[in-house]
Amino acid sequence: MDSRSPKPAAAAATPAPGTVDLAPLRRASRPRWPELAVWLLPVAAWFLFPEDLALLTQIAIMAIFALSLDLVLGYAGIVTLGHAAFFGVGAYAAGLLAAKLGIGDPLLGLLFAAAVAALAGLVTAPTVLRGTGLTRLMVTIGIGMMLFEAANKATDLTGGVDGLQGIEMTPILGLWSFDLWGKTAYVYAVVVLLVLFLVARRIVHSPFGLSLRALHMNPARMPALGVSVDARLAAAWVLGATYAGIAGALLTQTTQFVSIDVLGFERSAEILLILVLGGAGRLYGALIGTIVFVTLHHVLAGIDPEYWQMWIGLVLIGIVLFARNGIMGAIDPFERLLARKKTEP
Amino acid sequence: MTAPALHTRNLVKTFGGFTATDDVSLTLAPGARHALIGPNGAGKTTLVNLLTGVLAPTAGTVFLAGEDVTGLGQHRRVRRGLARTFQINRLFADLTVLESVALAVGERRGVGWRVWSPVGARGEVLDEAARLIETLRLADVAHRRTRDLAYGRQRLIEIALALAVQPRVLLLDEPAAGVPTSESRALFETLAELPRDMTILLIEHDMDLVFRFAERISVLVSGAVLLEDTPDVVATHPLVREVYLGEATHHA
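Structure tokens for the assembled complex are given below, as produced in the milestone run.
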């Protein structure tokens, strides 16, 4: 069996009985056409809703935040209700860099925010990973609350509840300045989302990504394969923190303002809802969940400004009861059927 | 004289006032086919946990190829060539057989931290995983998810994951547990085909398997080694028959 031969299509012909056909696993990380369809959505939105670019930008940013939680929760299996801590750290890092140090370059701001959020992830990892289950959940809530109060007290630095102002952004790469209609901001956010998504996609298909999925399913087995579970979880935690920090920085840069609720508990809870709604552990769940949630929010708040949260709650309960793995989970059986048809002609 | 593949010196483990492992000195020569038997509650599982590093001993030392590994955690001992299977399957329910074995092979080959190239592009890992799956006669289900397989075949994945580590010493913790007789033959054959230079400690309730497989047997009672000898001697030993009174005993 020469499975190294560089002709996957031809080699995919029926393997000899008793041997393993490697083609399906070799194919697993290739892009598929429904993925392209998903990425046409932001392009279509640009033309269909030119008045709503600010909202669409928010969706792109939320999608990055949801993606970051998916890496931490959906893949590594770390349940957290304090993920806004890193979103907030990134938001303030980008904001302070521009407002206090006068460095308004957007890409530099993203890099800086990513680094600070990664550091925050590194510092918190040992404490969070120490416990398991409920203990760990409590620690994540605690970290979120502490950061919120710290930002609240440090009014000289953060502006406290009044928010951080005086953020001026220079043009992206010196070419595209942020305009009043939010066109630049939208394209910027979508491009960053696309880049981060492609990176995440590579990571989850890598050996490291496989090990995260495996330790999520059975952490007790991993040491018996020679794997240090804590080190893997810490790496996923830092990665998620970095992504969240970039999302926060994008919000700062596109709104030129930092409100203290970037660190709020509600943001942590909301992003968890979004991920569960879309389906955790499959990357696209984060995107679909965000789009559906924010759209629902927008539409329901328009219909019923007072009680929209009740309707959202109803939808969520419905999804959790009838599609246990979220919207993407509901698609799974069909996808498996399709995959089986392909491998068993 | 080469060092034993695995040995312990005066190993003790107490939980509160209860002594689960009582002064156990066990020696496995390289290539040994050694079985550990004993009635329920004899402390077999505790001993396995001490050997693999899941538990730290109250006193005593564990040596792997002559090297003191008592202070090393589980995954470090695995990296030094000590693998195990679990009494109750500990598998990756939603991974396919190929993914599971490729994971284990990749970790042993040290690619577990690679984040950029896909698993499917690692030819050397996939080829080795495929060979292992073929050896264990799992090729027909290589792309099926673990959760969809019969228990007996899942037991073979347990063994595949342990073999992927390319261990020098392999601890088999009741490999036949829960396997229906219809599927046990494939399992016995697999065990008989394991490479002769691999040192194996078999912890088993199934006396049939023990007497077929082992060349030496240690009998564990109340945490202590009651007796260690060849299967012939153990099978006819009055003390063993006393311990196993009422349970199935086999004359070799």
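Confidence is low (pLDDT under 50) at residues 248-252 of chain B. The radius of gyration of chain B is 19 Å. Further analysis is deferred to the final report.
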